[in-house]
Design a protein that fits this description.
The complex is a heterodimer of chains A (506) and B (278). Chain A has 506 residues and is mainly alpha-helical. Chain A has 5 domains: 97 residues, Orthogonal Bundle (Arc Repressor Mutant, subunit A), CATH 1.10.10; 43 residues, no CATH class; 95 residues, Arc Repressor Mutant, subunit A (Orthogonal Bundle); 86 residues, Orthogonal Bundle (Arc Repressor Mutant, subunit A), CATH 1.10.10.10; 106 residues, no CATH class. In chain A, 57% of the residues lie in helices and 9% in strands. In chain A, the strands form 4 sheets. Chain A has a 3-stranded antiparallel sheet. In chain A, strands 6-8-7 form a 3-stranded antiparallel sheet. In chain A, a hairpin with a 5-residue loop joins strand 7 and strand 8. About 7% of the residues of chain A have low confidence. Chain B is α+β, with helices and mostly antiparallel strands and 278 residues long. Chain B folds into 4 domains: 62 residues, Arc Repressor Mutant, subunit A, CATH 1.10.10.10; 74 residues, Orthogonal Bundle (Arc Repressor Mutant, subunit A), CATH 1.10.10.10; 63 residues, no CATH class; 33 residues, no CATH class. Chain B has 12 helices and 10 strands. The mean pLDDT of chain B is 72. The chains are: A mainly alpha (506), B alpha+beta (278). Chain B: This is DNA-directed RNA polymerase III subunit RPC6.
Chain lengths: 506, 278
C-alpha cells in the first residue's frame, strides 16, 4: 500500500461513510488484518462504534473477515476494493447504456425482474456467498464466525418467483453520482406475512465482470482507431462470445472458429463469409497483434491476445503522458527506446534524428523523472566510466507503477480541491438550500407569484453567479476524477495482468 | 686491310628512357628488367640501370618487387607532374593519405605510420595543402578533429554525416520539413518504399504516426531488397490522450512538493485555479 493509495482510500471513505468508518477503514488498510479487540484499543474508539463501522464496511463489500487458526476472527479491508468506489459512476453508466434507463419513471415488478434476470445472466450481478445449512452435529461448538459458501452454478441463477400482483413500486432515484448501494438486496415485501421463497439470498454487483467489460471496450475502441469500424465490430463479437467462457485474468480468450464468429455477428452487419475471413487475416497480421491465429480448423481459429492488448494500451498511455509532459520530440525518443530496448546516447541521436545537444537534454530530463533508466555495461572489471557502455532503456512495468502512484495522488488532490471549494462556499450553499426549501414549501401551500419572486431575490445576482461557478467547478473536478480513473484502470489492469503472467511462468 | 670496327651504337640516354616508358605503357602491370633487355638488346646493364634510376627519381616509374624480380611500372602521369619537386618524405606522407581513401586520416595517425616528427609532418601537410594535393575535412563525429584526404576525393558519409549535415551543423529544419512532407505524402495512402529516406520514415514510426510492414516481393520490383519490400502506411494513435494529462496534476512541475497544508497544496494550487476558470 503506497502512501498515495492510503490517502485516497481515507478520502473516499470519509466522503461516503463519515469520520468513524474512515478512521477504522484507514487503520485496517494500513495495518492489514486485525482482531476486534486490537482495533478498539489502537484506534481509541468504542467497541460499539467499531462494530457498526465494520458492519458498514462488510455490507458494502469493502471489508472481509477471516477465521484464524487460533480461533479468533480477523477483519481486514482491501485497498483495491475501496479504490473501486471511484468507479461507481462508470458502472452505473454502463448498466444504463446496456440495459436501459428508467428516467425516473415508475416501473412495475415485471420490468424490474426481467432487467434483473438479464443482469444476472450476463454475470453483472452475482449471488453473495451464504450461510451453509446446518448439517453437522449440533453438539460441536459453533464457529466464531460463519464461513460463507457459494456453489459455482448457483452464482448467477435467479430463483423463480411469483411476483404478479405485488403492485407498482417507484424505483428509487439511483442517479446519485456517489452511488452507495453496492448490494442489490431484494427488499422483503412488507405486505405478505410468510417469508418470500428467496429469503436469505443476497445479491451483489460483480465488479470483475464490469472490469472485463471496460477492458473489452478499450480494446474495441483501440481497434476502431487503428483500423475501421467493421474490424472493431468483429473484435467486439469475438469478445462478447468469450465473455462467460474466459476468466478475467487469462492471457488469451478461448479459440473461436471463423464459422462461429460469422454466425454470431450482429444482425445489422451482413458482410460475406469471405470478407470476414479477409478481415480476420488482416487483423491477425497487423503489427498490433491483438488477434492471433491459433489453428486452421473450422475455417481458422482465432484468439484475442488479451495480455498483449493490455500491454499495448498501457504503453500507449505511457507514450501519451510523455508526449503531453515533455513534447513530441521526447515522445519520439521514448518510442524509439521502447522499440529498440537498449540504446547508447549516440545511437539515440542517430535514429531519432535529433541534434546531439537537444537529445542529451531530453534524455536527462526523462531520466530525472524516472521514465527512462540507465544500464551500465562495463568493459573492464574496474568499471571505469570511460570504459563503460551506458545504455538507455525503458522499464515499462516500473514506469507504469510510478505513473499509477501519480494518478492516485492526482485523484486525491482533485478530491481535496473539490472539498475545499465546497467548504469555502458553505455559507452560500446553505443559504441557497434554505431558500429552495422555503420556495418548495410555499409552492406546496399555494403562494402567490409575487411572494415567490421575493424569496428568490434573496439570492443576489453575484451570489447566483458564484453558485453557478461553484457548480461548474465541482462538475469539472468530478469529470476529471473519472477521467483519471480511466487511466488508473488501464494501468492497473496491465500491472495485474503482468503479475499474473509472471506468476504462471515456471 | 684494316679491320673495320663497327662502332657500337651508343644509344641516346633519353632514347632509352623513352623506350622504357613506352614499354611500360604497353605493359601497364609492370615490366621486368628482362623485358627491357629483350626489347633493347643494344643497351647494356649499366645504361639500363642509369635510365631506370633517372626515371625513378623523376617519379615517372614505380619500383615494385614481385616474385619474378623487380618490376617497373609507369606512374600515373597526372601525379607525376604534381610530385615534381617534392622530396621523399612528402611522397611518403602523400602515399599514406592516398591509402586512407575517402575516409581520410588524422594527423596523429600519419605520424604513427610514417614515424616522422610532428614538426616535419605539419610542414609537409602545409606544403601539400598549398600544392592542392590534399585537403582537410572536419569530421562531424568530433568537431575539433581534422582528417586529411586527397584533394579530389568525395568525403565519406561517416565523416560528413551524409545528407543531413551541411557544414557540420545538423540540418534540423531540413529534417523537420522532410518529416512533415513524408507524413503528408503517406497520409494520402500511397504505398512507398524508398531506400534514401528510410531514416526519415523511421523517425515517423518513432513518432507513432506511421507503421511499417515487410512483405515478400518478387526480385526486380522497384525497391525490393533481398526478396523483401518495406511498406509504410499512416496510422492513427490507438488511444486518445489519456485522462491523467487532462488534469493539471498530470503536467504539474511541482507535483512532488504538493501536499495538503503545505506551501503548495491542492487548495491553493494556481494551476488548478486557472484550469477551473475555463
Amino acid at each position: 500500500m503506497t502512501q498515495a493509495e492510503i490517502k485516497l482510500c481515507s478520502l473516499l471513505l470519509q466522503e461516503h461513510f463519515g469520520e468513524i468508518v474512515e478512521k477504522i477503514g484507514t487503520y485496517l488498510v494500513r495495518t492489514g488484518g486485525q482482531p476486534l479487540r486490537v482495533i478498539v484499543s489502537d484506534t481509541g474508539t468504542s467497541l460499539d462504534q467499531v462494530k457498526k463501522a465494520l458492519c458498514v464496511l462488510i455490507q458494502h463489500n469493502l471489508g472481509t473477515y477471516q477465521i484464524q487458526k487460533r480461533g479468533f476472527v480477523e477483519y481486514s479491508v482491501q485497498c483495491s476494493r475501496v479504490l473501486c468506489i471511484l468507479r461507481y459512476p462508470r458502472y452505473i453508466y454502463t448498466a444504463k447504456t446496456l440495459y436501459g434507463d428508467t428516467d425516473g419513471k415508475t416501473m412495475d415488478y415485471t420490468e424490474v425482474s426481467s432487467t434483473f434476470v438479464r443482469l444476472a445472466d450476463t454475470h453483472f450481478v452475482q449471488r453473495c456467498p451464504g450461510v451453509p445449512d446446518a448439517s453437522g452435529p449440533s453438539d460441536s461448538a459453533a464457529p466464531p464466525a460463519p464461513t460463507l459458501v457459494i456453489d459455482e452454478k448457483d452464482m448467477y441463477s435467479v430463483p423463480r418467483l411469483n411476483l404478479i400482483g405485488k403492485g407498482k413500486r417507484r424505483r428509487s432515484c439511483d442517479d446519485d453520482d456517489n452511488g452507495e448501494h453496492k448490494a442489490k438486496k431484494q427488499k422483503q415485501d412488507l405486505e405478505s406475512q410468510e417469508p418470500p421463497p428467496d429469503d436469505g439470498i443476497y445479491w451483489q454487483v460483480n465488479r470483475d465482470r464490469f472490469h472485463q467489460h471496460f477492458r473489452d471496450q478499450a480494446i474495441v475502441s483501440a481497434v476502431a482507431n487503428r483500423m475501421d469500424q467493421t474490424s472493431s465490430e468483429i473484435v467486439r463479437t469475438m469478445l462478447r462470445m468469450s465473455e462467460v467462457t474466459t476468466s478475467s485474468n487469462a492471457a488469451y480468450t478461448q479459440p473461436l472458429s471463423s464459422n462461429e464468429i460469422f454466425r454470431s455477428l450482429p444482425a445489422g452487419y451482413n458482410i460475406g463469409k469471405q470478407v470476414l475471413d479477409q478481415y480476420l487475416t488482416l487483423l491477425a497480421d497487423d503489427p498490433l497483434e491483438f488477434i492471433g491465429k491459433s489453428g486452421d480448423s473450422g475455417g481458422g481459429m482465432y484468439v484475442v491476445n488479451l495480455h498483449k492488448a493490455l500491454a499495448s494500451l498501457a504503453t500507449a498511455t505511457l507514450e501519451s503522458i510523455v508526449q503531453e509532459r515533455f513534447g513530441s520530440r521526447c515522445a519520439r525518443i521514448f518510442r524509439l527506446l521502447l522499440r529498440k530496448k537498449h540504446l547508447e546516447q549516440k545511437q539515440v541521436e542517430d535514429f531519432a534524428m535529433i541534434p546531439a545537444k537537444e537529445a542529451k537534454d531530453m534524455l536527462y530530463k526523462m531520466l530525472s523523472e524516472n521514465f527512462v533508466s540507465l544500464q551500465e555495461i562495463p568493459k573492464t572489471p574496474d568499471h571505469a566510466p570511460s570504459r563503460t557502455f551506458y545504455l538507455y532503456t525503458v522499464n515499462v512495468l516500473a514506469s507504469t507503477r510510478m505513473l499509477l502512484h501519480r494518478c492516485y495522488k492526482s485523484v486525491a488532490n482533485l478530491i481535496e480541491r473539490r472539498q475545499y471549494e465546497t467548504r469555502e462556499n458553505k455559507r452560500l450553499l446553505e443559504k441557497s438550500q434554505r431558500v429552495e426549501a422555503i420556495l418548495a414549501s410555499m409552492q406546496a401551500t399555494g403562494a402567490e407569484e409575487v411572494q415567490l419572486q421575493e424569496i428568490e431575490e434573496m439570492i443576489t445576482a453575484p451570489e447566483r453567479q458564484q453558485l453557478e461557478s461553484l457548480k461548474h467547478t465541482v462538475n469539472k473536478i468530478d469529470a476529471s476524477e473519472n477521467q483519471v480513473d480511466e487511466t488508473i484502470f488501464l494501468l492497473a489492469s496491465y500491472v495485474d495482468s503482468t503479475v499474473v503472467a509472471a506468476a504462471k511462468k515456471p | 686491310m684494316a679491320e673495320v670496327k663497327v662502332k657500337p651504337e651508343v644509344p641516346d640516354p633519353l632514347d632509352v628512357e623513352n623506350r622504357i616508358i613506352e614499354l611500360c605503357h604497353q605493359f601497364p602491370h609492370g615490366i621486368t628488367d628482362q623485358v627491357i633487355q629483350n626489347e633493347m638488346p643494344h643497351t647494356d646493364a649499366q645504361q639500363r640501370a642509369m635510365a631506370i634510376n633517372r626515371l625513378l627519381s623523376m617519379g615517372q616509374l614505380d619500383l615494385l618487387r614481385s616474385n619474378a624480380g623487380l618490376l617497373y611500372r609507369v606512374k600515373d602521369s597526372q601525379n607525376t607532374s604534381k610530385m615534381k619537386g617534392s622530396d621523399n618524405q612528402e611522397k611518403l606522407v602523400y602515399q599514406i593519405i592516398e591509402d586512407a581513401g575517402n575516409k581520410g586520416i588524422w594527423s596523429r595517425d600519419i605520424r604513427y605510420k610514417s614515424n616522422l616528427p610532428l614538426t616535419e609532418i605539419n610542414k609537409i601537410l602545409k606544403n601539400l595543402e598549398s600544392k592542392k594535393l590534399i585537403k582537410a575535412v572536419k569530421s562531424v563525429a568530433a568537431s575539433k578533429k581534422k582528417v586529411y584526404m586527397l584533394y579530389n576525393l568525395q568525403p565519406d558519409r561517416s565523416v560528413t554525416g551524409g545528407a543531413w549535415y551541411s557544414d557540420q551543423d545538423f540540418e534540423s529544419e531540413f529534417v523537420e520539413v522532410l518529416n512533415q512532407q513524408c507524413f503528408k505524402f503517406l497520409q494520402s495512402k500511397v504505398e512507398l518504399s524508398m531506400e534514401d529516406i528510410e531514416t526519415i520514415l523511421n523517425t515517423l514510426i518513432y513518432d507513432g504516426k506511421v507503421e511499417m510492414t515487410i512483405i515478400a516481393a518478387k526480385e526486380g520490383t522497384v525497391g525490393s531488397v533481398d526478396g523483401q519490400m518495406k511498406l509504410y502506411r499512416a496510422v492513427n494513435p490507438i488511444i486518445q490522450p489519456t485522462g491523467l494529462v487532462r488534469t493539471p496534476c498530470g503536467l504539474c512541475p511541482v507535483f512532488d512538493d504538493c501536499h495538503e497544508g503545505g506551501e503548495i497544496s491542492p487548495s491553493n494550487c494556481i494551476y488548478m485555479t486557472e484550469w477551473l476558470e475555463f
